[in-house]
Amino acid sequence: MEIKKQTRLRGELTVPGDKSISHRAVMFGSLAQGTTRITHFLEGADCLSTISCFRKMGVDIERNASEILVHGKGLHGLSAPSEILDVGNSGTTTRLISGILAGQSFTSELNGDASIQSRPMKRIMTPLQSMGADIVSIKGNGCAPLRITGKPLQAVHYQSPVASAQVKSCVLLAGMYADGITRVTEPVLSRNHTEIMLNYLGAKVTSQGTTASIEPEPVLKAREIQVPGDISSAAYFIAAGLLTPGSQILLRNVGINPTRDGILKVCRAMGADITLLNVNEEGEPVADLLIRSSQLHGTTVEGSIIPTLIDEIPMIAVMAAFAEGTTVIRDAAELKVKESDRIAVVTEGLRRMGADIQPTEDGMIIHGGKPLQGAKINSYLDHRIAMSFAVAGTICDGTMDIVGGDCVNISYPEFYKDLYSLGEC
Ligand code: S3P
Fold first, then answer.
1. What is the pLDDT of residues 82-116, one digit of tens each?
2. DSSP letter at 32?
3. N or C: which end of the chain has fewer CB within 10 A?
4. Catalytic: which of 230, 288, 311, 382?
5. Ligand 1 mean position to 371 CA, how many Å?
6. Cβ(41)–Cβ(68) under 8 Å?
7. How far away, in angstroms, is 58 Cα from ligand 1 center?
């Protein structure tokens, strides 16, 4: 995928629906009574994997141009799949569905692509096993493929060693099938879409600090779910708008849940001109984001903000390379176990462009402001790497060639079209 330099980005864009919320809408809609209507659903490959898994368990899910209709089966209405559940590239599908499968009355197997088969699953196996679940890594390496046989589950209070919404959600979902109140405490608060949506559908989930608790056997009732624009997808256009001189762009209807909005805080700390318009805080908060090009400088990104921007770090690193001064990113060792090792892969790509970047055990140090050139960048089939370097390619001189650039279809199938829709080439 070859990327062209852009000048002056102008206009408006509605980014695709939030990936995390789209997954949950299908999953929880499948367990609800009645038909859940989902609008602005993300039609990316990851969320389509979730649809395919639930269809294999007997859920009737209709897709048309403007909406998804999930004809829910209730908490105990899923049926045994006759084939392996294919989770594709999706960590969210794998980890959340495992919590649901642990409480069913059947055995199922999950598997996905090469990336999924190397991502850590012990982080969900350990808490599920402590609840009495029968979940095994078939190859014995703590990764997918997984085999899960439903069992009666005991409620636990799980102290998670990682701030991970996937782990928290997995345990809470298993908690729906347990014999009492299940609690999860995490070191730092991670995204809370599961808690918000389960409550919206009628479950009793409470949150206090970094502890979330769920009462068992909720009766979930189908309701309309309007998926906000994905702030993780908006991040590429925030960066492009800030870094391309003379730009002014409006990103419509972007989710700004405080457990996801770290990118806005970091951009502002770097000197960004971002204005929130039409803020609506009912349910999942949303706003329109007005982005004007800005002179950016370095900052430090660390501590409790990390889970609120974990998927945006590749884009932040690229922005830091264009900014003046030094940016330090720490407390982000989780980057090593994403769709690729994002510390290593970002370092490789930015160095190829001529940037001064040092990888560390839990982040990176970037001395920005060096002249950057287009280069041949390997995405390692990681969608967030491909999109971050595509944005870099619209700003730097020379040709940017992204190897494996098609992987953007995981979370943003129309990405390249949208990227060119705002510019004057
Ligand atoms: C997600 C949680 C995060 C995030 C991922 C989506 C979710 O992963 O990186 O893209 O939908 O719950 P972790 O839970 O591993 O931090």
1. 999 999 999 999 999 999 999 999 999 999 999 99
2. S
3. C
4. 311
5. 33
6. yes
7. 26
Domain locations in the chain? 2-16+228-421, 19-226
The residue to mutate among 190, 195, 227, 387, having the most atoms of ligand 1 within 8 angstroms of its beta carbon, is 190
Rounded distance between C-alpha atoms, residue 206 and residue 215, angstroms: 9
Nearest residue by C-alpha to atom 10 in ligand 1: 311
Ligand 1 pocket: which of 19, 20, 95, 334 to mutate (most atoms within 8 A of CB)? 20
In tens, the pLDDT along 148-176 reads: 999 999 999 999 999 999 999 999 999 99
DSSP class of 139:
T
Q: Superfamily for 2-16+228-421?
A: Enolpyruvate transferase domain (3.65.10.10)
Nearest to 16 by CA among 231, 277, 275: 231
Q: Are 314 and 379 in contact (CB under 8 A)?
A: no
SS3 state of residue 238: helix
Mutate to test the pocket of ligand 1, among 27, 47, 49, 92 (most ligand atoms within 8 A of CB): 92
What would the pLDDT profile of 172-192 be if each residue is shown by its tens digit? 999 999 999 999 999 999 999
Separation of 285 CA from ligand 1 center, angstroms?
19
Q: CATH classification of 19-226, choosing from 3.65.10.10, 3.30.70.1290, 3.40.50.620, 3.40.50.300?
A: 3.65.10.10
Q: Whose CA is nearest to atom 11 of ligand 1?
A: 20
pTM of this prediction?
A: 0.98
Residue 89 CB–ligand 1 contact under 6 Å: no
Q: What is the pLDDT of residue 65?
A: 85
Model confidence pLDDT, tens digit, residues 108-122: 999 999 999 999 999
> Do the domains spanning 2-16+228-421 and 19-226 agree at the CATH topology level?
yes
Helices 91-101 & 45-56, crossing angle to 10 degrees? 20
Tokens of 69: 């209709």
pLDDT at 284: 97
